[in-house]
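Hello support,

Our group uses your service weekly, and this is the first time we've seen a run hang past the timeout. The protein is Leucine-rich repeat-containing protein 34 isoform X5. I'm not sure whether the cause is the sequence or the server load. Input pasted verbatim:
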Amino acid sequence: MWDPGKEAAGAGPGFPTPVPTTTPNPFSAPADGSAPEVTGHLQETYYNLCMEKSQKINTFILHILQEVDEELEKGSEGITLNIAGNSRLMPEERVTGKDFWILFRILKKSPYISGLDVRYNLISDVGAYYAARLLQKNTTLKYLRMTGNKIENKGGMFFAAMLQINSSLEKLDLGDCDLGMQSVIAFATVLTQNQTIKGINLNRPILYGEQEESTVHLGHMLKENHCLVELHVCKHNIKNCGIKQLCDALYLNRSLRYLDVSCNKITCDGTVFLADVLKSNTTLEVLDLSFNRIENAGAKHLSETLASHNRSLRALSVVSNNIQGEGLVALSQSMKTNPTLSNVYIWGNKFDEATCVAYSDLIQTGRLKPDNTDVEPFVVDGHMYLAEVSNGLKKHYYWRPIYGEACTNSPNAEMNVNHPGQDRWLLSG
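Update from on-call engineer: The timeout came from a worker crash unrelated to the input. Re-ran successfully.
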């Protein structure tokens, strides 16, 4: 078992230095680790903790906690604490590891908060250490989104160690956190035993070499894990050999419903393995192949399987895969015989008039709903064209509207998650 306690540091007035090296003593905390009891006044608790530890008060956090207090007074439960650093309301000073430590002290005694979104802040491996330590004992937090915080390999190891102990966290987003090969392998190893995590995002780690070692470990994990529903391995440098490792695992796995292998190096040869496994796999519902290079041959392999064999896949994204008209038309034809496939995303490929007519027909006949694709037909001088529409599997992953309903009742909204208790996907705003 990894011991994160060996890799943290304390310096200054009770705060850690940017690079932890020894066991910390954050804020000169009491030896018993006690925190003020939260009784529905989170704003007051945060203020008092900041005063006690001589920590500068973050007005944005104070504002968010006030809103949460109001929700708690209404009797709300399962609340997600949204302190995203890319919010328009966020002041210049984003959340740091020091703020994060205080937040988790509050969450420790607040059972009504089940989600925490702190993406795009300034939380480093120090903040990851405190979060991981507190999550070892936390039994109420179900959803944690750390996207864009540079916790790096060391911070990833802290979270992997935490998952050996925590039995309540269900969804963990560590995308764009600069994880390293060691921490990705650690997550794959831990998830062979962890039976709680249902969704994990390991997008864009910092990997070196061409051996696809991390993909081999992830494939082994999928053979052993029968609880994971959603896996994101975008920008993992996965090639055809790597996708074969994942497909071999999918013959045995009967839980995974969402596989994101976008932004990798998968070609038409890799889609042969995907097409074969989709003939027998009846669990996978969402497949994201965006920004690979499957081309016409790959699109045809998938189309043949979808037309004749698979009846479980609901959403397929082949955005920017260098597919030309022949392959795109083949995909459209498969939808005519496949009643299950409802969401198809094709923008960024090479459209000819046959493609434009084929998808226009699907939309006009109602087989493909406008909200379930990223193209819209229009006519100029008697010729059919397709325009891009802002839809997709990750529509609200990097941004959300500042007013109105971000997630509607459309099928496309099912690819998102608002609260961890809902049966929706991890990638959301």
